[in-house]
Please model this.
Amino acid sequence: MSRQSNRTTDSKKMNSELFTLTYGALVTQLCKDYENDEEVNKQLDKMGYNIGVRLIEDFLARSNIGRCQDFRETADVIAKVAFKMYLGITPSVTNWSPAGDEFSLILENNPLVDFVELPDNHSTLIYSNLLCGVLRGALEMVQMAVDVRFVQDTLRGDNVTEIRMKFIKRIEENLPAGDE
Amino acid sequence: METRFTRGKSAILERPLSRPKTEVSVSAFALLFSEVVQYCQSRVYSVTELQARLSEMGQRVGGSLLDVLVLREKNGKRETKVLNILLFIKVSVWRALFGKEADKLEQANDDDKTYYIIEKEPLVNTYISVPKENSSLNCAAFTGGIIEAILTHSGFPAKVTVHWHKGTTLMIKFDEAVIARDKSLDLR
Model:
């Protein structure tokens, strides 16, 4: 079976504003529906997870990328291919742990937060927390359990926006009985 | 609509409002919008309520978008005539949101308050399959909300509803006063 090689990045593009504003409307709605920021963060992560689980299919189909050999390669693919393809940005990969099982993504120009400010009474809201869920969900579908969280966020006064990713374990494929 | 003021000197105020350089993929939007619809669905009991919720979220988007577009496309000048604001929506707003003009703009034959914007394949519906038991559901209610906010905040209070008719039709019903004002402007 031969694959077409020109399918790599031919996904359709659109102006990021509708995306940004729709996300903003969603966060606003969640802040109204839930009592505290903690709950909103959780809900955003959950929704992101649902997206990630579906997004990985789209990603694998479009990118022609096979299985990653190690976590370093995973990091590169996430930053240089996936973020570029979906959000039009390329975060930098830094702060590797000596064991090579933990790294950081530094986000500049996160399209989710264009022109966003957190009001004082939402200082613990992790506005872009959806992204953590997306990464976690997508990687879970390729048998990697990963812990993803924001450790710095410019919206909350930090200098950079940093997502920390920690490899937990490979998920063993559970073949249904009699399927071997 | 609630108003919130930016704290003291915020860096946001220094940022230019020119066109965004970034583009995102349509898939990213489709997946996000699908979650939005599912989330709304989990908190309502009927199709009507669901559409109302989507419209409400669209209104937030429209409210934020209006000033930016007026500044970019119209040099800060606002429309005062019904026909012009409708054209502004058909052309500028649609281009900014969906990268193209709306397919059609029509006025109802029998009613001078009612206009239609017709879109054969609206972007927000591209990836949504409507289940048979809720065949009246139209997620373009979200777009309807955007347009309603843009009209209302421009001084043309209106109700925008969404229907399946020649594709998707947004029905715009202006308040009586809007049309009366428009007519009196014509007389001068």
